[in-house]
Amino acid sequence: MTNCYLIADETARQAVLFDAPDHTTSPLLKEAAARGWDVTGLWLTHGHFDHFADHAVVRQKFPAAKILLHALDEPKALHPEVQSRLFQLPFVIPPLKADAHATDGQKLKIGSLEVVVIHTPGHSPGHVVYHFPKEKVLVGGDLIIGGSIGRTDLPDSDHQEMEASIRKVMGLPAATRLLGGHGDATTLERSGRPIRSCGRYWPRVEWRTRRRIADYPPRPAPGLGDVQLALNPKLLHPLA
Fold first, then answer.
1. CATH of range 3-231; options 3.20.20.150, 2.60.40.1250, 2.60.40.10, 3.60.15.10
2. DSSP string, 107-156
3. pTM listed for this prediction
């Protein structure tokens, strides 16, 4: 399953959706509308189909939402049919053109919440994570998942870059809450322990965990207003 996060500044009534897995975003968009939040952005961690397939659903409900994606991953989003054929997807993904490109060190805001973009290539050339330094929260995409890391055996993956990206992120405070692209929320300390104990970083070839829709939503991250997670109960994606 691929995770999708809605993070809001409740006082400012502004929210951003992080990633848009297929058949997943509607519950969060409905919740945002019910709470009177304006979803101002869809900020993507990378261009693998299981992280952006619902982008048109987001735009339909919140037409002004600005889509961010790193330039190096935009070709995948512009031509989703390549991934659709490769993985024989049973649904159609419309092409996506970002409104702006996420860049390393870029500073963004959701109301009063400050967010810093960190470029973390390896799993994908344009992979990024979104760091909330004051709240000690990291929206991590497929960088670190389930005590392991995202795959680096894909055509445009690079294992050496993945190692460098993980070292960079592991420089953040150990207590940073990690909201990964797959699996449960954790912390950098808990996620890094099994990786470090192995003495190296290795590619995760399979993701085996299934989650029920009954598990939605998890506990919110403290200090971030409302953080919610939607899970896709239908498909087990092969890209993690």
1. 3.60.15.10
2. EEEETTEEEEEEE--SSSTT-EEEEETTTTEEEEETSEETTEE----STT
3. 0.83
